[in-house]
Every structure is written in structure tokens, then in C-alpha cells.
Write a structure and sequence with these properties.
heterodimer; A: five-stranded antiparallel sheet; globular; B: alpha+beta; Ubiquitin-like (UB roll); DNA polymerase, domain 1; 2 domains; five-stranded mixed sheet; binds flavin-adenine dinucleotide; binds FE2/S2 (inorganic) cluster
Chain lengths: ~290, ~160
């Protein structure tokens, strides 16, 4: 993939694009993908597709006719349709009430207001950019990612889904259909914080913390770090140190230190590896103190 | 392929290529108030309203807007009969070169529809993504506050 070319009027052109398809069902979408392998690209919000170009592609499959833009309760789960926009996620009452509102808060931190009206859940997961706000939150809440393909539906745990880039994990004739959130976590305390140079900038580091707190005792803590390295990371050593302990300032400091040691940070233009490590320590501590308030 | 758009209340048909961006369609159809700044989703100068919501026309495929209602700055007011937002931007000194202003005004219009009496934070959030390289943003907040008051019938 590389940047799209421009014609002599300064208009972007995607070469060899001859088809624009708008299927009405998931099954039809999969058939369209199978029919011309590698030639057709799924299109959701378009914010990623429109700035990149691929030599092989000559058709777009618009997913906005699939009615996959729901956010609803489904028994023990909250089901989020893949074509729901960031705007829908950030303003959903169900999500604002879920686990301290971590998913809604992450969506609210994506890009800018007009971008959030466009960017979708599925596009965000399929691209899995290092700056993506949602993946670390889904890792923290152990979300389940439902993918539809030629063999029907398949579910991935967040740990599995976020272990490699989706282009390596998923078959080319699949689409991400839905994300399921376990309602058992609905009453957890939680916080999401994005650290970025400006409110519009991509994240340098993001921190998601969740826990139950009863009579000052921490149970089921979850800490996930995003943007510090190519894939989001769970801080299991820090989580183990918190489990079953009486919450205190010292405990939060200890968890911050352990999280810092656990995450193998990498350099990019938004921060050096060592700066990100320092941020992780401070942000984990700060967010733990906040949820304990 | 043929698509239908309702632009500033007029229904129109266009023949587009699947790769055509909404910004290029609108500008070549004469809606040159849609400004092309970065052309990759960062600056907000290409903002238009699609079914009432601000979106970035430079990274929107025209084909995906088929059937939608589009509002551009040409649909807001005229020199002789400006929209209250346009008048307030002038009165408060919120305009310098003007390049960002179509996006600012359209984003403000969408905001005031759901927040007729917005707080300063709500205005900042509503205008988020509209970069201005001239003014420094303070005057635009005042302009939106003043337009909101006028539109509520306060003045
Ligand atoms: C200026 C700018 C700033 C941004 N800032 C942020 C930010 O701060 N945080 C953040 O998280 N994101 C941010 N993004 C968004 C991110 O970079 C991607 O552009 C976005 O996630 C793509 O989502 P989309 O719905 O627009 O997908 P599209 O552009 O439609 O598609 C992107 C890719 O995903 C595939 N795809 C789409 N839907 C599915 C599906 N359901 N199943 C399988 N594959 C699918 C497409 O085929 C394509 O390869 C920003 C984008 C821009 C342009
Ligand atoms: S021209 Fe569209 S965001 Fe800059
Ligand atoms: S007035 Fe010049 S960019 Fe805003």
C-alpha cells in the first residue's frame, strides 16, 4: 500500500477501479470477496481506504448497506456491529455505563469530530494502526471478535486477535462482523487515558485500567497499554501484583513500575521508547488512583 | 455509475467513477466553498454536512454518499442575507484569510442544531478538527456563542 496518486487537476485517483458494490447481507459480501480474490476491497468509513492505494484492487465493496451499525444488549453480552461509527460508540448510553465507560471514552478520543462521524469499529480493527484507540480497550475487557467468512462465523478472543496483524490472521474472504463485550464486566470500575501531543494527534501511549473494588480490596484487575509498541499489551505481572490486595498509593506505584518493565516499547515520531516507558509508569499509577477514588 | 445527491436542497444526478472523492465532485460541480487543504483528513477545510453531520469530503468516496443530503457553505447564506453564524463570525473578527471558515461554519451549524446553548467545551468539541492557521481560535468560540444567542432569539 502507498499513497494514492493525483491527476493533473490535483484530484486523487485510485487506479483501475471499476466496481462499486453495495451488498445487503454478510453472506453476499463474502461471495463477492470469493468471486474475485484479492481484487475487491471492503469499504466502511473510507478514512483508511481513501488515502492508500493498492495495485491489485479494482473494486470496492461498501459495507454500509449491511445494517451492522447496532450497539445492543444480547443476553450476557453487549453486541457492537462492525459498521458502527466512533460517534455512535462515544454517544451510546450502554457503552457509557459499561466498565467505567472505557469503550465510549476510547471512541471519543479517536481523531476529530468529523472523522468520528466516518471511522467505523470494523475499519479500526482491520487496520490496527499502532495509534488505534480501541484495540487495547478490547484487550482489557477480553472482548470477543466475530468474523464472517466462507466457513460461516468464527470468534476470536481478544488475546488471539490482537497477537498479530489482522491481514495475517484473517482469510482474505472474511469480514469483521461484530464485537461482543461480556456484561459481567459492566460494573467494573474503569478508566481510559490517551496521552498525545494535542487533542487531534495520534496517541503516544494509551492506558486502560479496570478492576473491581470491594471494601478496598482489588479483584480482577486488568491493565492494557496501547500505542507504545506495534500491538497492544496486557500487563499481567502488574495485574497479579494487584489481585486480592488492599488498594493503596504504594500498590498503585508498584503496579506502575511493573507495567513499565513489562511493555517492550518502541520508538516512533510520537515518542521515544524510553519516554513511553516513563509515561506507562506514571499513567498506570494515575489511572489506578482515579478508579479507586 | 450514477449517483443522486441533494445539495443545499437541490436534487442532482452525477456520473461518477467509483474512485471519485466527494470533494472533487462538489468542487467541479461549482461548490468551490468546499476547500481543499491537506487532502488527507487532517485539516477540516473540506468539511461538509452529510445528512446534517460534519464529514471530511476529501476522504469520502462520492459513491458512498449516494442518496444523501449534502450542505455546503453555498447553502448557508448570501452576502446580502448572511446566516446568523456568518454574521457573527464577521462581527466578532473570527475571519482572517477565510480558508477554514466554510468548515468552521458548517461544523458550528451542526453543533447548534443539537446544542442551541453550547458550553465553551461543547463548542471546542464541535469545532474540533477545523484547523485555522490565522486567528487562534478564541474569536470563533465567541462567534458561535453570539450566533447561538441570536438564533435562540436572545438579541
Ligand atoms: C487524519 C486521521 C486521524 C485519525 N486518528 C485516529 C486516532 O486518533 N485513533 C484511531 O484509533 N484512529 C484514527 N484514525 C483512523 C484510522 O487511522 C483508520 O483510518 C480507520 O480506523 C479506518 O476505519 P474506516 O472505517 O474508515 O475504514 P476503511 O477506510 O473503510 O477501511 C480500512 C481497512 O479496513 C478494511 N475493513 C473495513 N471494514 C472492515 C470489516 N468490517 N471487516 C474487515 N475489514 C474491514 C478495509 O478493507 C480497509 O483495508 C485516523 C484517521 C485519519 C484519516
Ligand atoms: S482537505 Fe479534507 S481534511 Fe484537509
Ligand atoms: S482564517 Fe485563515 S485559516 Fe482560518
Amino acid at each position: 500500500m502507498r499513497h494514492a496518486e493525483k491527476n493533473n487537476k490535483g484530484e486523487k485517483t485510485v487506479r483501475k477501479l471499476s466496481e462499486f458494490l453495495k451488498p445487503a447481507t454478510v453472506e453476499e459480501t463474502v461471495e463477492l470477496l470469493i468471486e474475485r480474490p484479492g481484487k475487491r476491497k471492503l469499504l466502511a468509513g473510507g478514512t483508511g481506504v481513501s488515502v492508500t492505494d493498492s495495485q491489485q484492487i479494482d473494486g470496492l465493496i461498501d459495507l454500509t448497506g449491511l445494517e451492522l451499525d447496532y450497539i445492543e444488549e444480547a443476553g450476557e453480552q453487549l453486541a457492537l456491529g462492525a459498521v458502527a461509527t466512533m460517534r455512535q460508540l462515544e454517544s451510546s448510553d450502554l457503552l457509557k455505563q459499561y466498565a467505567g465507560g472505557v469503550v465510549a471514552e476510547a471512541a471519543a478520543n479517536v481523531g476529530t469530530t468529523p472523522l468520528r462521524n466516518m471511522i467505523t469499529l470494523g475499519g479500526s480493527l482491520a487496520q490496527m494502526r499502532v495509534w488505534a484507540d480501541l484495540p487495547p480497550v478490547f484487550l482489557a475487557v477480553d472482548a470477543e471478535i466475530v468474523v464472517s467468512g466462507p466457513e460461516g462465523e468464527q470468534s476470536y478472543s481478544a488475546v488471539e486477535f490482537f497477537s498479530k496483524h489482522p491481514t495475517r490472521l484473517l482469510d482474505k474472504s472474511c469480514l469483521i462482523k461484530q464485537v461482543n463485550l461480556d456484561q459481567k464486566l459492566a460494573d467494573y470500575r474503569g478508566n481510559y487515558e490517551k496521552f498525545a501531543m494535542t487533542s487531534d494527534a495520534y496517541a503516544t501511549v494509551t492506558v486502560t485500567v479496570l478492576a473491581e473494588l470491594n471494601d478496598g480490596i482489588v479483584t480482577n484487575p486488568r491493565i492494557a497499554i496501547g500505542s507504545a509498541s506495534p500491538f497492544p499489551t496486557r500487563c499481567t505481572a502488574a495485574e497479579e501484583a494487584l489481585e486480592g490486595q488492599k488498594f493503596s498509593q504504594e500498590l498503585a506505584v508498584k503496579a506502575g513500575k511493573l507495567a513499565r518493565e513489562e511493555v517492550k516499547t518502541t520508538d516512533n515520531v510520537w515518542g521515544s521508547a524510553s519516554y513511553k516507558s516513563k509515561l506507562i509508569e506514571k499513567l498506570v499509577k494515575r489511572n489506578l488512583l482515579q478508579i479507586a477514588e | 455509475m450514477e449517483i443522486k445527491l441533494t445539495i443545499n436542497g437541490d436534487s442532482k444526478k452525477f456520473e461518477v467513477d467509483p474512485s471519485t472523492r466527494l470533494i472533487d465532485l462538489l468542487r467541479s460541480a461549482g461548490y468551490q466553498g468546499v476547500k481543499k487543504g491537506c487532502d488527507e483528513g487532517h485539516c477540516g477545510s473540506c468539511t461538509v454536512l452529510l445528512d446534517g453531520q460534519p464529514i471530511l469530503s476529501c476522504i469520502k468516496f462520492a459513491a458512498q454518499a449516494d442518496g444523501a443530503e449534502i450542505t455546503t457553505i453555498e447553502g448557508m447564506g448570501t452576502v446580502n442575507d448572511p446566516h446568523p453564524l456568518q454574521q457573527s463570525f464577521v462581527d466578532k473578527g473570527a475571519v482572517q484569510c477565510g480558508f477554514c471558515i466554510p468548515g468552521m461554519i458548517l461544523s458550528s451549524k451542526s453543533l447548534l442544531e443539537t446544542h442551541p446553548d453550547p458550553t465553551e467545551d461543547e463548542i471546542k468539541r464541535g469545532l474540533d478538527g477545523n484547523y485555522c492557521r490565522c486567528t487562534g481560535y478564541v474569536k470563533q468560540i465567541e462567534a458561535v456563542q453570539s450566533a447561538a444567542q441570536k438564533m435562540r432569539g436572545g438579541i
